Amino acid sequence: MPTLAALNARLDARHVAGSGKPIRFVPPQPDDAAGYEARAWRTGEIVTRPGNWHDADNALAWIDWPQTKREVNRQHHLHAPHGEESRRGTARDVLTLFDEDGLVVACAEPSLAELLAGFRWKELFWTQRADVMEKMRFHVFGHALAGKLRAPFRGLTAKALVFSVDAAELHLPAGGQVAAMDARAAAWLRQPAALSSTRVLAPLPVLGIPGWHPDNARAEYYDDAGQFRPGRRSRGVHSTA
């Protein structure tokens, strides 16, 4: 469990809130009535409960995905004017789903992205297994998703953004891949259509990703309709930003 001091030591000039204020991780203050996003916007303070993995994972997302987390905070502020944290709507629903359970997928083969968007799970993860392992990368963004992956359960589903990329990008060092996807996800969030519907996020059953879980090394694993459900076509596949 990282301490607040250890988390704050990893911050640099890239790490700013949606307002542009430098961020820092702070413990909760009992007399602060402002919500999490409003406080982050106003002060740059990211409320982080010591000893709490959910909050630690959120802090780590701020560290590794600075552009995207900044844009999430900025968009929350834009869609909840006057600090009205309880005010909801489609835009804030999309932001929350992505912030909590987001998975950012890099895909160098359009046909694989089409299978994902069409809920054709067995064809994607089994029939095209070798291509998925060669031509796709799956990056955890959501801090709640990170916590769930510590104790994965049947039916665990992420909310994915899928970006079309050049194959060479898939062979960058891990940090370089995340930095590239951070820039793409942040740019995507700035587009007006990005927050128009929760269907911009593609449901993705995480335990089906080839090689992630030993059980999925069998073809019949993907016949479990409780995990690999059909559905309406997702809009969560996007061109390179």
Proportion of residues in helical segments: 25-40%
Count of helix runs: 10
How are helices and strands ordered from N to C? Answer: HEHEHHHEHHHEHEHEE
Beta-strand segment tally? 7
Gap between N and C termini: 35 Å
Sheet/helix structural class: alpha/beta
Mean pLDDT: 92
Total domain count: 2
Report the major sheet: 5 strands, mixed
- The residue ranges in which pLDDT falls below 50 over 5 or more consecutive positions are none
Strand content: 5-15%
Rounded radius of gyration (Å): 18 Å
- What's the shape? globular
Describe, in short, the structure shown:
The chain is of the alpha/beta class and 241 residues long. The chain has helices at residues 4-8, 36-43, 53-64, 66-79, 90-101, 110-117, 121-127, 129-135, 143-148, 174-189; strands at 24-26, 45-47, 102-107, 136-140, 157-164, 202-205, 237-238. The protein contains 10 helices and 7 strands.
